[in-house]
Design a protein that fits this description.
Elements (H helix, E strand, L loop, with lengths): L1 E6 L5 H10 L12 E3 L5 E6 L4 H6 L5 E5 H7 L4 E5 L5 E8 L14 E4 L2 H10 L5 E4 L15 E6 L3 H5 L2 E10 L1 E5 L5 H22 E9 L3 H7 L7 E4 L5 E9 L3 H11 L2 E7 L6
Parallel strand pairs: 1-3, 1-4, 7-8, 7-9
Antiparallel strand pairs: 2-3, 4-11, 5-11, 6-9, 6-10, 12-14, 12-15, 13-14
Bound molecules: phosphoribosyl ATP (PRT) and zinc ion.
The site of zinc ion has 3 residues, from loops.
């Protein structure tokens, strides 16, 4: 059985559980439980504080885990980052009081910076030849300047509203993070096989998210031009409609090409365009 560490409750837990569910894995979790076994997959889930996940995985207490890359990199535990998962995106940034001048990294010289990420911050400062004092604090970093504890902060930013409401401005992004799947350095063959199965499912879910299924109608003479626009997984499906000379085309398009392709299709003579989400996609 593969032991999977997930955050018990917090910013990662909902999306982590959603991903597990979309991979077709279900479990009944009594509220407040610390571990549970999947009903239909050889896996056991451990529910932990996010900060503990890298260490549990490094020690082999859990085989894999889902956690913010910021926590993994800060923690310096011996784990392997297997896959970026694309959710819980945020950045680790340095911010200073709004009223202060900022003329580039040199402005941080000799400053006192409060953070919960001393390792990542120290690396950044060293790399840039900045000599600043790091104050490690574990929470409410954003209030440090207003109570006179520090000149600047280095904290996680998502929308920026926490910084703004504390009179701070973001001046340097030092790390970009998202949820990642981590694994213990050594997995036995059996667990490795279960992990591969899980990764295959995660990829199918991710591919589906990035792609849409498209259906459209077109007259026969427009079909070659439309096929050129639609890449499809192999080549588009073309089916005759009941109306003489008209066809229905089915294909797959990428989310980020969506608007551009729709414009081109309309210009080429497509009508009745439907775009629908895909649940799973296997190449
Ligand atoms: O209880 P436990 O220890 O498990 O959780 P936690 O409170 O330590 O972590 P949690 O649940 O807050 O965050 C888990 C992970 O989510 C982090 O490690 C990041 O990888 C990611 N993440 C994404 C964030 C944010 N967005 C985020 N906005 N983590 C924290 N924040 C905080 C930030 O610290 C700051 O206080 O939100 C505030 C900033 O948000 P904005 O939107 O105002 O900029
Ligand atoms: Zn935490």
């Amino acid at each position: 059985m593969l032991r999977i560490a997930l955050q018990k409750s917090g910013r990662l837990s909902e999306a982590s559980l959603k991903l597990i569910k979309e991979c077709g894995i279900s479990f009944t979790n009594g509220t407040g439980k610390l571990k549970t076994i999947a009903d239909n997959f050889p896996a056991e889930f451990l529910f932990l504080r996010d900060d503990d996940i890298p260490r549990y995985v490094a020690d082999g207490v859990a085989d894999i885990g889902i956690v913010g890359e910021n926590v993994v990199v800060e923690d310096r535990s011996e784990v392997v980052i297997t896959k970026a998962l694309g959710f819980s995106k945020c950045r680790l940034s340095i911010a200073i009081p709004r009223s202060e001048m900022y003329e580039g990294i040199e402005s941080l010289q000799g400053k006192h910076i409060a953070t919960s990420y001393p390792n990542i911050l120290r690396d950044f400062l060293n790399k840039n030849g900045i000599d600043a004092t790091i104050h490690e604090i574990s929470g409410s970093v954003e209030i440090a300047p207003s109570i006179g504890l520090a000149d600047a902060v280095c904290d996680i930013v998502s929308t920026g509203s926490t910084l703004m409401s504390n009179g701070l401005k973001e001046v340097e992004v030092i790390f970009r993070s998202q949820a990642v799947l981590i694994q213990t350095p050594v997995l036995n063959e059996e667990k490795q096989a279960i992990l591969q199965k899980l990764l295959f499912r995660i990829e199918a879910v991710q591919n589906a998210r990035n792609n849409k299924y498209i259906l459209l109608n077109a007259p026969k003479e427009a079909i070659p031009a439309i096929i050129d626009i639609l890449p499809g997984m192999k080549s588009p499906t073309v089916l005759p409609l009941a109306m003489e000379g008209w066809y229905s085309l089915h294909s797959v398009i990428q989310e980020d090409q969506f608007w551009e392709i729709i414009e081109q299709l309309k210009a080429a003579g497509a009508e009745g365009i439907l775009v629908v989400p895909i649940e799973k996609m296997i190449y």
